[in-house]
Each structure stands twice: as C-alpha cells, then as structure tokens.
C-alpha cells in the first residue's frame, strides 16, 4: 500500500466526516490517540494532514485506509439514527384562508 493520502482528503473533509458521525474533536482525538489541538489545526488547515494522522483518523472512524473520509461504511460510534433526507418534499399549507 502506498503511503499517500488520497487526493481531496483535507481538513475540510475531516471536519465533515467528524460532524457526520456526530463526534466532537475531543472524542475523535481520544479514539485516534491524537491531540485534540492537533486535529483542530488539521481541520482548519493550519497543520498538514500527514499520513500517520490520516491512518489514525481512518481507524478511529472505521474507514478503510486509502479511502476518502466520506466513506459511508460501518461506524464505530454511530448509534442507529435515521438519516436526514434532504430530497424529501416539504409540506406547505396552500390554503389561502389559513393565517399561519
């Protein structure tokens, strides 16, 4: 296996993956055995996202090493929750007599 972070994997993707799993930075840091301040800086692109940090984050998020952080596979911390369907139609009241 090559020790190169996949293209497109960056701090912004790390932030999105962490939020998608409803984890705080301290929770992810504990699971990845990394400093929460280091992960905070990686998310904000203040520090580089290095291979060792990427591997630890992948393991903590149950994402295969070598994959993007948007992987939708099994989640170690995920409890069964319904996913939000942004494509679902919204219901609005079309009655002109209704004052709501």
TrEMBL record:
<feature type="region of interest" description="Disordered">
    <location>
        <begin position="73"/>
        <end position="100"/>
    </location>
</feature>
<protein>
    <submittedName>
        <fullName>Helix-turn-helix domain-containing protein</fullName>
    </submittedName>
</protein>
<dbReference type="Pfam" id="PF13560">
    <property type="entry name" value="HTH_31"/>
</dbReference>
<dbReference type="InterPro" id="IPR010982">
    <property type="entry name" value="Lambda_DNA-bd_dom_sf"/>
</dbReference>
<feature type="compositionally biased region" description="Basic and acidic residues">
    <location>
        <begin position="73"/>
        <end position="84"/>
    </location>
</feature>
């Amino acid at each position: 296996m090559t020790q190169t972070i996949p293209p497109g994997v960056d701090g912004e993707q790390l932030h999105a993956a962490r939020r998608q799993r409803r984890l705080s930075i301290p929770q992810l840091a504990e699971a990845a055995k990394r400093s929460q301040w280091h992960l905070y800086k990686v998310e904000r692109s203040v520090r580089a996202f290095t291979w060792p940090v990427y591997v630890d984050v992948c393991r903590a998020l149950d994402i295969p090493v070598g994959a993007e952080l948007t992987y939708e596979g099994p989640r170690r911390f995920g409890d069964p929750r319904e996913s939000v369907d942004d494509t679902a139609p919204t219901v609005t009241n079309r009655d002109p007599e209704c004052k709501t």
